Amino acid sequence: MPKYKASFIRRDFNVIILLCFFIFNLYASFSVIYALKRLCRKGVTAHARKNFVVKHILYVVVILISWLILLLNNFESLYNFTKYTTNTNFYGKTNSLNFVSYLFMFGNGILLATVRLQEPFYYFAIKE
After folding, report:
1. Does residue 105 contact residue 70 with C-beta atoms inside 8 Å?
2. Confidence of residue 6 (pLDDT cuts 50, 70, 90)
3. C-beta separation of 14 from 78 below 8 A
4. Hey, how many other C-beta atoms are within 10 angstroms of the C-beta on 67?
5. What are phi and psi of 111, to 5 degrees?
6. In whole angstroms, how far apart are CA 87 and each of 1, 57, 76, 83?
7. pTM of the full structure
8. Which residues lie below 8 Å from residue 62, measured CB to CB, with a gap of 6+?
9. Could you give the CA distance from residue 98 to residue 72 in angstroms, rounded to a whole number?
10. CB–CB of 119/112 below 8 Å?
């Protein structure tokens, strides 16, 4: 059994996550285009169209940025080989990218709720 098999497993896992991120980027781009296409038909006011498109793009951007920061943290930990020696504590030493990654991971719900508050109905419900 190879000595560093866990590193290869982690590398392959991160490459799969990167591929999923790329597929999600494509899917998100097409969803924005599809939403614009569906909203350009008759019966949708310009104000409603603008609100929906802005909210949809904000959702996509928040999720893409949070995924990107998480992936950057994974690749930094993957290619910084000093963290994979037996003498270092992986969880004890956190750098700034790791800290920001944890903030985005645990604050993702707060960011998405903030985007949701851009809708007039939810803003009114919270205000009351």
Report:
1. yes
2. low
3. yes
4. 19
5. -65, -40
6. 21, 45, 19, 9
7. 0.66
8. 108, 111, 112, 115
9. 9
10. no
Spatial distance between the Cα atoms of 17 and 73, rounded to a whole number of angstroms: 12
CB 25 within 8 A of CB 65: no
Mean pLDDT across the chain: 76
Question: For 65-123, how does the pLDDT look when each residue is reduced to its tens digit (9 = 90+)?
Answer: 888 888 777 777 776 644 544 444 455 555 677 778 888 888 888 888 888 887 777 77
The domain locations on the chain are: 5-127
| CA-to-CA dists, residue 37 to 24, 28, 33, 72, angstroms | 20, 14, 6, 33
Q: What is the per-residue DSSP string for the chain?
A: --TTHHHHHHHHHHHHHHHHHHHHHHHHHHHHHHHHHHHTSTT--HHHHHHHHHHHHHHHHHHHHHHHHHHHHHHHHHH-GGGGSTTS-TTT---HHHHHHHHHHHHHHHHHHHHHTTSHHHHHHHH-
Residues in the chain, how many?
128
